[in-house]
Design brief:
Number of strands: 19
Helix content: 40-55%
Strand content: 15-25%
Bound molecules: 5'-O-[(L-methionyl)-sulphamoyl]adenosine
CATH architecture of one domain: Orthogonal Bundle
Number of helices: 19
Distance between the termini: 47 Å
Shape: elongated
CATH topology of one domain: Isoleucyl-tRNA Synthetase, Domain 1
Length: about 525
C-alpha cells in the first residue's frame, strides 16, 4: 500500500431554500456508506456535509418568509443536520457557509486568485438564473410559454447588467483538458466525463464571480460593493473544512479530497470551475467527482408543483431505515436515474431482505438454538461444497472494495446477494433438519458453515444497514472489537454461547392492500 490510508469524502452542501427530500438524502447516503466502509477498512476518514447558505435565492426566500436571511438559514440548516442524524449519517463535520471559518477561507482564496492575476474587474451583461444560481449563454436558452427566456434546466433567466469581477476561466481550457486526459478517473461515470470534456472543448468564457445587485453573500475583500458569486463561495467549503487557509494540519492530511459526490445537475461546477479555481491558486484539484442520477416517483419527475416530493421521513416511517438505505443503493445502477415505486421497494424488502437474508439467518440460528444448545457448533472436516461456499464468502471483501471504489454500490450488493442465494441453495441441499437424526455431527458442520457466511455477509453490509447488521452480529455473539474488516478472515469460535435469535428483517405487509406510496 502506498500513501497514507486516509479518505476524504464530501456531499454537496445543500441550499437552504428548501426542505430536505429524497434527492438530498440519496447523495448523503452514498457518501455515508463509503465513509463507513473505509473506516471499517482501516482508513482515517473525514466525511463532510453541510449547507450552502448565501445567494440571491436564499435572500429571496428569507424575504418571502419575512425574516432576516441569517435567522432563515439557521432554521433551514438545522433541518439538514437533523436529517443527517435521522438517516444515521456518520459525517465528521457539518459546514455552514455563514460560519466565520468559511468566510475567512473563501476571502483568502479570493485574495490569492487576485494576487495571481486570475481575477479582474469588468462589467457583466448576460443571462442569469436565480433558481440555478448560474449564468447562461444566449445560445443555451429557449423561449417559454409566457415569452420569457428559459435555461436548459427549465429555470427562468433574467437579464443582468452590473459591474462584476471575472475569473479568467477562458485561459484554463487547455490545462483543464490536459488534466482530464492525465486523470481519466477524475469524472465518473464516463457519460458525464464525455459531457464535461465536450463542454470545455467548445470553449470557455471568463466567469463572473461577484454580484452587486443583492447583499446576502461573502464580501469581496477590498471592495464592499461586491459579494462573491455563490458557487465560488460554496465550492470553497471543501477546503475550509480541512482548515484552509492553513495548509498544514488537516489540509495537509486530507487534501486533495478523494471524492466529491454530486448529482448530475451540478457536475459542471465541480468538474470545470472548481479544479480551475484550485489550479489557479496553486492548490491541488480533488481526485474524483462522481455524478449520480436523479430519482423519479412512480415514473414522474419529482417536483413541488406536482406535489410528489418524497420525504425521507415518510419513507423511513413506512419501510424502516435500513430497508430504505438498502433499497436506494440496490435498486439502481449508481450513476443512472432511478424510479422509486412502492412495488419495487416491497419487492426488495420482502424478497431480498426478509426472504433471502433474514430467513437464512433466522432458520439456521434457530436450529443452532434448538438442536445444538445455542452454541456455535464444532465443525468436522469440510466437504467440497462447504469449501466452495466458504471460498465464495471469503472472496467478497475484495469484490466489495473494488466495486465501492468505483461507486458501483449495486454491483457490490449483487455480489453479496449471490453468496446469500448460494447459501440458501446450500442449506436446502444439505438439509440439516434431516441430518439431525442421521448425522448430527454433519448437521453441526453445515450450520457452522452457514453461520460463518452470515457473519461475513453481516460484516460487509454494516455500511449499508448499520442497525440491522449490528443486531445480527449480536446474535452471532461477534465481539464489538471483531467487527471491522481486519476480522473478516477470522472465524466463529466453536462453543460460543449465542443469544436467542430474533428476526432482523420483517416482511412488509401492506396495511391498505397494495395502495401506492
Ligand atoms: N448548493 C448546491 C451545491 C453546492 S456544492 C458546493 C446544490 N444544492 S441542492 O440542495 O440543490 O442539491 C443538492 C443535491 O441534491 C444535488 O447533488 C442534487 O443532484 C441532489 N438532488 C436534488 N434532487 C434530486 C433527485 N430528485 N434525485 C436525486 N438527487 C437529486 O445544488
Amino acid at each position: 500500500m502506498t500513501g497514507p490510508r486516509r479518505y476524504y469524502i464530501t456531499t454537496p452542501i445543500y441550499y437552504v431554500n428548501d426542505s430536505p427530500h429524497i434527492g438530498h438524502a440519496y447523495t448523503s447516503l452514498a457518501c455515508d456508506v463509503l465513509a463507513r466502509f473505509k473506516r471499517l477498512d482501516g482508513f482515517d476518514v473525514k466525511f463532510l456535509t453541510g449547507t450552502d447558505e448565501h445567494g440571491q435565492k436564499v435572500e429571496k426566500s428569507a424575504e418571502k418568509a419575512g425574516v432576516h436571511p441569517q435567522a432563515f438559514t439557521d432554521e433551514v440548516s438545522r433541518r439538514f443536520s437533523d436529517l443527517a442524524a435521522f438517516m444515521g449519517y456518520s459525517n465528521d463535520d457539518f459546514i455552514r457557509t455563514t460560519e466565520p471559518r468559511h468566510i475567512a477561507s473563501v476571502q483568502a482564496l479570493w485574495t490569492r486568485l487576485v494576487e495571481k492575476g486570475e481575477i479582474y474587474l469588468g462589467k457583466y451583461a448576460g443571462w442569469y438564473s436565480v433558481r440555478d444560481e448560474a449564468f447562461y449563454g444566449a445560445d443555451e436558452l429557449t423561449t417559454g410559454a409566457d415569452g420569457g427566456k428559459i435555461a436548459p434546466t427549465g429555470a427562468p433567466v433574467e437579464w443582468v447588467e452590473e459591474p462584476s469581477y471575472f475569473f479568467r476561466l477562458s485561459a484554463w481550457q487547455d490545462r483543464l483538458l490536459r488534466f482530464y486526459d492525465e486523470h481519466p478517473d477524475f469524472i465518473a461515470p464516463t457519460s458525464r466525463r464525455n459531457e464535461v470534456i465536450s463542454f470545455v472543448k467548445n470553449g470557455l468564457q471568463d466567469l463572473s464571480v461577484s454580484r452587486t445587485s443583492f447583499k446576502w453573500g461573502v464580501p469581496v475583500p477590498g471592495d464592499a460593493d461586491h459579494i462573491m458569486y455563490v458557487w465560488l463561495d460554496a465550492l470553497t467549503n471543501y477546503i475550509t473544512a480541512v482548515g484552509y487557509p492553513e495548509t498544514s494540519g488537516d489540509y495537509a492530511k486530507f487534501w486533495p479530497a478523494d471524492l466529491h459526490m454530486v448529482g448530475k445537475d451540478i457536475v459542471r461546477f465541480h468538474a470545470i470551475y472548481w479544479p480551475a479555481f484550485l489550479m489557479a491558486a496553486d492548490l491541488a484539484p480533488p481526485r474524483r467527482v462522481f455524478a449520480h442520477g436523479w430519482w423519479t416517483n412512480e415514473g414522474q419527475k419529482i417536483s413541488k408543483s406536482l406535489g410528489n416530493v418524497i420525504s425521507p421521513y415518510d419513507l423511513v416511517q413506512r419501510y424502516g431505515l435500513d430497508p430504505v438505505r438498502y433499497f436506494l443503493l440496490r435498486e439502481v445502477p449508481f450513476g443512472n436515474d432511478g424510479d422509486f415505486s412502492h412495488r419495487s421497494m416491497v419487492n426488495r424488502v420482502n424478497g431480498e431482505l426478509a426472504n433471502e437474508f433474514g430467513n437464512l439467518a433466522q432458520r439456521s440460528l434457530s436450529m443452532i438454538g434448538k438442536n445444538l444448545g445455542g452454541q456455535v457448533p464444532t465443525p468436522g472436516a469440510f466437504t467440497a461444497e462447504d469449501d466452495e461456499l466458504l471460498a465464495a464468502a471469503a472472496a467478497l471483501l475484495d469484490k466489495l472494495r473494488a466495486s465501492f471504489d468505483r461507486q458501483a454500490f449495486h454491483e457490490g450488493l449483487e455480489a453479496v446477494w449471490s453468496v446469500v442465494r448460494a447459501a440458501n441453495v446450500y442449506i436446502d441441499r444439505q438439509a440439516p433438519w434431516a441430518l439431525k437424526k442421521t448425522d448430527p455431527a454433519r448437521m453441526g458442520t453445515v450450520l457452522y458453515v452457514v453461520a460463518e457466511v452470515i457473519r461475513q455477509v453481516a460484516l460487509l453490509l454494516q455500511p449499508v444497514m448499520p442497525g440491522s447488521t449490528a443486531r445480527m452480529l449480536d446474535q452471532l455473539a461477534v465481539a464489538e472489537t471483531a467487527r471491522d474488516f481486519t476480522a473478516y478472515g477470522q472465524h466463529l469460535a466453536a462453543g460460543t454461547a449465542l443469544p436467542k435469535p430474533e428476526g432482523v428483517f420483517p416482511r412488509y405487509v401492506d396495511a391498505d392492500e397494495g395502495g401506492a406510496a
